[in-house]
Amino acid sequence: MKKIAIGQAGGPTTVINATLAGFVKNTMKDHALFFVRNGYEGLVKGNFLKGTDELLEWVLQNERVPGACLGSGRYPFSPAQMELAVRHLKNEGIDSLVFIGGNGTMEALSLIGAEAKRQQYDLQLIGLPKTVDNDLGCTDHAPGFGSSARYVAQTTNDISRDLHSMQNFEQVRILETMGRNAGWLAASSGLLRRFEEEGPHYIALPEKKLNVEELVSSVDEAVSRYGYATIVVSEGVKWAGGEQVELETVTGRTILGGISKQIESFLKDELHVTARAEILGMNQRSFSYAVSSVDRYEAFLCGEAGGHWVRHGHSGVMVSLQRSKDRGYNVETIPVALEDVVRAGERMLPSHFIQHPGEYYKWLRPLIGEGLSSYPPPIQRRDLYVN
Questions:
Q1: Helix axis angle, 79-92 relative to 103-118, nearest 10°?
Q2: β-strands 246-250, 253-256 pairing
Q3: pTM of the predicted model as reported, rounded to 2 decimal places
Q4: Which residues are catalytic?
Q5: What is the per-residue pLDDT across 86-103, written as a single tens digit (0 to 9) for each?
């Protein structure tokens, strides 16, 4: 029987608790579980909860609940804090440390492994992936992204229909998505666009500098032809001068946001239209009604795989989701070294997906699940059909 500590770190998702539940269900009968409160901060403070029957039952009850039920958050590690965290694990007699998270989480897990070696402490390490931004390297996609992409796609389609009905009052809306330096989420906004008149009429991605002339031309053409324009912009897009728009810095991490408001002001001045900027906000990662059944299943699958690998002695690895070569859509869980994940860095939206959106939507569609709304043309003109 191993003593296993598991925690959640970074921004939560709608399915991060499904990953936790998958791991717990796979390990609770033959291992002693300890839960780390509030991410890596809990390691530094030695804040562990023993997995009693009552606590295990409560954790499993959270399988379909958004947010990280153990507490998550962001916590910058100093070398002294990392040394303290490892000592807490050592004093507790923990054999295995498992964390669910994204790029920062995997990097911290790798550093903990190095510190454990320095302290001559044999600690098994397993990383379980999650991120709504889909910027985690060494995996085809990460749990959390599919549901967020589903939300962004449906919301953009719905807001576009709303704006279509209000064009005598308001002509332009600029929707700002999450994503930091990667455009996966923003690009997903066009997935449900079936008719030429529907938005989004322009998508701005962090992988490309904002082309002001192209933006103005696209908006002007859409307003002239259809009476309105829906614009989607990722929070990480670089505006004039080549700088990202920053809201603030919290615990050493830059919080991006506000590019949509600047585009709103610019288009009002440039085109003399009525425009409104809207940040889609935390609903992108917490809206339970938008959860993809595929995303939830794969999140649980990653937790299960982590449990198997703890039992079979894998260490210093992250669970990677890779598409199998079978016909149809299937994924396999494959171990990848934490060092490789860290070395890969942020995973940007590939140029071939940017240049050929149809290929991206073909790749994306299996991840978002079934049951999305299908609408008739916004007006009675069949010549506007995109496909």
A1: 70
A2: antiparallel
A3: 0.94
A4: 133
A5: 999 999 999 999 999 999
